[in-house]
Amino acid sequence: MSTGRFGVPAGVRDGVVAVCVAAVLLIAGRSGQHSAADLDVLVGYALLAASGLALAAGRRAPLPVLAVTGLCTAGYQAAGFDVPAVAFLFAVYAAVRAGHRVFTVAASVLMLAALPLAALVSLHDTGEAFARARGALEIAWLIAAGAAGEALRQAERRADEAERTREETARRRADEERLHIARELHDSLTHQISVIKVQSEAAVHVAGKRGEEVPEALLAIRDAGREATRELRATLEALRDDGKTPPHGLAHVPELVERARGNGLDATLTIEGRRHDVPATVDRTAYRIVQESLTNIARHASASTASVRIDYRPDALAIRVDDDGKASPDSAPAPGVGLLGMRERVTALGGRLHAEPRSEGGFTVRAELPVERTS
């Protein structure tokens, strides 16, 4: 429910206005002079109260309220009550504010024609009936109510457009900043990393052709250059993402496992549960968890085997990556940037992450990401 400037719910405000209008109409009805039967008086008071109380629903159903207040106004005029059509004016304001201008104009014209006929029922004098009708609903008040509703509608529309413009400007600036960062990374890092990669691969190739033993440090530099190139490319793709190119997700996890095998790691992938679509944020996060885990295994674990297990559950996606590396239960993992990034991604989605040494040796990364079925 929307709230106003002072935090009062709109429904409460509408209810208070409706009660106040009903009270004013009843007071005006009691103070007015009218010669009618007792039954007509009771009906007139009931219609006065009903026309005011109907305004409580003006925000939710402006057109029905316009019709109800119009009928009630004509009814108490026919019952002999010379009371201004205050409730109908409020209803005109609410209907125009909601954007129903044509219907409101038609209803107002109909009311201007119907009120003299309603007054004739109790007065039997055409001149007096027209005078009473003109006093109950003057054209000037109708125009003022409609103009006020239209002015507020235009103000609200401009406010909405201004809010959308601010959001679009913020998104555009964020896109521009991402592109700027991407260009800076490209200009400052790509060339140097490419030189390291090319030179190390050339050195390994030359050493192999000469039959010389390739130093382990040189192989490590070559592998690090390749991995840095892949990581930089993925980062630049993420920064330049314009929503047109699909980002990496669960469908690309087999490529990660295959790449790990190509680097000499005996990696396996197991999919459990019935596959179903997951939100895009969960899809990307799952890929990043597997990617970062396999990267850490290749860099730090000195492992020979690794297993990746993805379990599709009805309300969650579970990911587990195990290795048989050098980690032991009595050694606490160093809180590196990779683990910190994974934890932040998982926490942002309301999930849980456990990254710790296994009791039988090696390291395990377990993540559980809540999902809402999209199909």
Radius of gyration: 37 Å
Sheet with the most strands, sense and barrel status: 5 strands, mixed
Q: Name the shape in a single word.
A: elongated
Quote the beta fraction: 5-15%
Distance between the termini: 30 Å
Number of strands: 5
- Overall mean pLDDT stands at 79
Number of alpha- plus pi-helical segments: 11
- Report the helical percentage: 55-70%
Strand order of the largest sheet: 1-2-3-5-4
Which structural class matches the secondary elements? alpha+beta
SSE string: HHHHHHHHHEHEEHEE
List low-confidence stretches.
none
Could you describe the 3D structure shown?
- With 375 residues, the protein is of the alpha+beta class.
- The chain has a 5-stranded mixed β-sheet, with helices on one face.
- 64% of the residues lie in helices and 10% in strands.
- It contains 11 helices and 5 strands, in the order αααααααααβαββαββ.
- Strand 4 and strand 5 form a beta hairpin.
Summarize the structure.
The chain has 375 residues and is of the alpha+beta class. The chain has helices spanning 10-31, 38-53, 62-78, 86-97, 101-123, 126-136, 139-210, 216-239, 253-262, 280-301, 337-348, and strands spanning 266-272, 305-312, 316-323, 352-357, 363-370.
